[in-house]
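Duplicate of earlier report; Deoxynucleoside kinase input re-posted below.
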Amino acid sequence: MVIVVAGMIGIGKSTLARMLGKHFNSEVFYESVDDNPILPLFYTASDEEIESKRYPFLLQLWFLDTRFKSIKQALVKDNNVLDRSIYEDWYFAKVNKELGRISDLEFGVYENLLNNMMEELEELPKKSPDILIYLKGSFETVLDRICKRGRSYELDSSLIEYYRKLWQGYDDWVQNHYNASQILVIDMDKVDLVNNKNDREMVIREIENKLNELR
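Output:
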């Protein structure tokens, strides 16, 4: 069983991944954030610094590298949960290209590298996850969760339009671009995984039921 958790920044992916790891007694591969030297620079850089330092492109390469390592290990061991995954990484690169933060040339290099990595996964005994859990929420819920998380570099008001751009296209990515596994959508406007035990138990039941359908 390999589960990947997807969704907007701050929506609750790590919380759910931790819950699932404990419930299924499986390893959890968390997104590389605290040890990521580029992420704070990406969030705080001026337009001029982004242009000269190419932080968005460097950040995508960092995440692509760490997510490739995680998905390979997860598919080989076959009892794992991933807090975001290599499948979702392309969407962030695409948004940054649309915002002019990544050039067409950089995006082409990125896509070629990603495609090569995905071909490598085809050589593994297990080719893809069993299920993707998409945590969906309103833009208001996303901003509220980001504020409550309290990472200082994520809280600048200038980032709101970046978050909005990401949020606006997420459903399309899930519905029209992700095809590696079955999908389960959890409405985070109605669920509080941190403070509500009943919500946590309900979500676990939904996930178990979906996995049983796939067996």
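The longest helix spans residues 55-77.

Merging into the original ticket.
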